[in-house]
Amino acid sequence: MKPKILKLSTVVLLLFFIGASCQKENYELADESIEITSIPSICIYKTKGDYRNKLALCLDSTGNITCTPLFNENSSVVEKHKNGNYKLKRRFFLNSGYVLELISLDRVFTNVTINEMVESFRKYDPGYWSHERWESRIIDRDPFAEFYRYYNNGKPPITLTIKEINEMLINGTIEEQFTKMK
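Above: the chain's sequence. Below: its structure in token form.
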């Protein structure tokens, strides 16, 4: 009886690990030595879904699109990662699913990937990305589960390393420096 339970447990555990590894995508955590300055602000967020390689749009108070990301492979906002995919230069992945990026709460996420944007500039002109096309690609109008921002508000600017920010998130002390917006 015991060998059967041991074998069954081993199989279940093996299947669990295989399933967990299949769903996990490899996103490289930011180098902890990177320094981030608070000018103009520092934003840290966690989304309800996995939007790490998706593009966000700005909306105004009535829900109209007010800004869209448009870039090609030669843009200063993207770089080619060692895995061959493009990534946003100023989007840093932190511990526990948090992201550091200059972004605001009025953003919505689309299903447009960073690679798709680069590729579209090879195939089409910038007019391809009409407001109607963008609107049809919105997948989450309320994407943020948590959102923190550091404003200078008359205080001297600060510089923090990714390591210091990760430690604040892990230790639960993020609200000592940052304002919780959501």
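The longest helix spans residues 2-23.
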